Amino acid sequence: MATDRNRGALIIIEGGDRTGKxxxxxxxxxxxxxxxxxxxxxxxxxxxxxxxxxxxxYLQKTLDLxxxxxxLIFSANRWEKVPSIIERLENGITLVVDRYAFSGVAYxxxxxxxxxxxxxxxxxxxxxxxxxxxxxxPVDQATSRDQYGTERYESTQxxxxxxxxxxxxxxxxWTTLDASQSIDAIHQQMKDLTTEIxxxxxxxxxxxLWV
Length: 211
Ligand code: T5A
Ligand code: NA
What we know:
- Belongs to the thymidylate kinase family.
- The chain has nine helices and five strands; from the N terminus they run E-H-E-H-H-H-E-H-H-E-H-H-E-H.
- It is an alpha/beta fold.
- The protein has a five-stranded parallel β-sheet, sandwiched between helices.
- Bound molecules: P1-(5'-adenosyl)P5-(5'-thymidyl)pentaphosphate and sodium ion (NA).
- Residues 21-22, 98 line the site of sodium ion.
């Protein structure tokens, strides 16, 4: 239920594969908690739910799914978390989200025959972020980082198309950070950006994405 107390901020971390999203998301939540703030980590795909398990099997190539069907599964995996996202934000908990609908659109629309508008439909109406932090790294540098190349979508050409699509989704609440910097340097910038946004959200209502 909405109250007159300050809500938490919805902070999304986006970027191509191996740009450091999971490393940074975890560090950011830990730093906020160490400062005495209320913060939690959310990750998409959430491979722990029945819907998320389908996405996980698809990514690990143990399950093949038609391209539209897997797109809707990634979206459904976000929708199933919407009630708990809203509840936590209203209870003053800041959420740091490792990938969101922008990944959903950027990766599916990198496939032949998919346009961005069709891809956005199934996530239209989920909570809109207060801030998107977008990590950029030349795809050739990303692919040389650890553990690259085992899952679906981990090819250089596909990654390049996905990165181009991310750029088409950028709006004024996105901030781009150079992911080739040191882990600590990126962390400090992310912490400053997040702290600023947390002070600004106040009791502002949670908007709907792409509405
Ligand atoms: N997907 C996802 C869709 O198609 N639709 C959707 O709706 C969604 C949500 C899996 C795939 O699913 C697709 C997109 C993906 O292709 P995932 O589970 O998020 O998505 O993928 P992961 O494999 O877990 O994560 P990434 O590959 O995206 O990596 P990260 O999280 O960006 O990078 P991270 O932090 O794991 O770091 C990678 C390596 O780099 C090092 C780390 O130590 C690690 O070894 N590193 C650095 N090295 C040097 N300098 C730095 N600054 C570094 N930061 C990290
Ligand atoms: Na990750």
